[in-house]
């Protein structure tokens, strides 16, 4: 399936588990995406990236965020709350991608205006399937808003 030309966007993955980062990168590579994936390893780094704080002054505005909930420093719920409260960031679709299947977590993130909630499967093949399903839906089917504020700058993948 080809990616919708309108959805050639930058993706921000907010994930502290190196294994899940590696699997997500592999799943997106298998899909032969031309999208650029950036990785923030904790909530603080994600907010620095989104607000273009040092060292991310030239970071692009992502068109999609894949957000884990259980993060060091600032947890994913707080990141989501800040994102959705900010008029300059709230239109960015946020897919919560987490190990939690807790009904309270599901309800809370939807109350915070997450766009979807996906529980990470522990099985490798299912994990790859889930990532590719997210890719097909968000990058191949959905029309995403154009960010008028983005200056088109590109940053390197954040590493800490």
Main β-sheet description: 5 strands, parallel
Helix content: 25-40%
CATH superfamily: Response regulator
- How many structural domains are formed by the residues? 1
Q: Radius of gyration in whole Å, from Cα? A: 14 Å
Question: Could you tell me how far the N terminus lies from the C terminus, measured between alpha carbons in angstroms?
Answer: 34 Å
- What sort of overall outline do the alpha carbons produce when their principal axes are compared? globular
The averaged pLDDT comes out at 86
Description:
The protein has 160 residues and is α/β, with parallel strands linked by helices. The chain has one domain (5-140): Response regulator (Rossmann fold, 3-Layer(aba) Sandwich), CATH 3.40.50.2300. The protein is 36% helix and 14% strand. The chain contains 5 helices and 5 strands; from the N terminus they run E-H-E-H-E-H-E-H-E-H. It has helices at residues 18-30, 43-50, 76-85, 103-111, 124-140, and strands at residues 10-14, 36-40, 64-67, 94-98, 116-119. It has a 5-stranded parallel sheet with strand order 2-1-3-4-5, sandwiched between helices. Strand 4 (94-98), helix 4 and strand 5 (116-119) form a beta-alpha-beta unit. The N and C termini lie far apart (34 Å). The relative contact order is 0.22.
List keywords for this structure.
globular; 5 helices; five-stranded parallel β-sheet; Rossmann fold; single chain; alpha/beta; 5 strands; disordered C terminus
């Amino acid at each position: 399936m080809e990616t919708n030309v309108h959805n050639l966007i930058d993706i921000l993955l907010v994930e502290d588990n190196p294994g899940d980062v590696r699997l997500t990168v592999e799943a997106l590579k298998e899909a032969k995406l031309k999208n650029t994936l950036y990785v923030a390893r904790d909530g603080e780094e994600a907010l620095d990236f989104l607000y273009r704080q040092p060292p991310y002054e030239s970071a692009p505005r992502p068109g999609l965020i894949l957000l884990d909930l259980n993060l060091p420093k600032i947890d994913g719920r707080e990141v989501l709350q800040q994102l959705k409260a900010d008029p300059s960031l709230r239109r960015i679709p946020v897919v919560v991608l987490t190990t939690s299947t807790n009904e309270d977590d599901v309800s809370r993130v939807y109350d915070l205006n997450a766009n979807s909630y996906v529980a990470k499967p522990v099985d490798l093949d299912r994990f790859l399937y889930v990532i590719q399903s997210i890719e097909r839906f968000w990058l191949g089917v959905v029309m995403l808003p154009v960010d008028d504020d983005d200056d088109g700058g590109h940053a390197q993948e954040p590493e800490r």
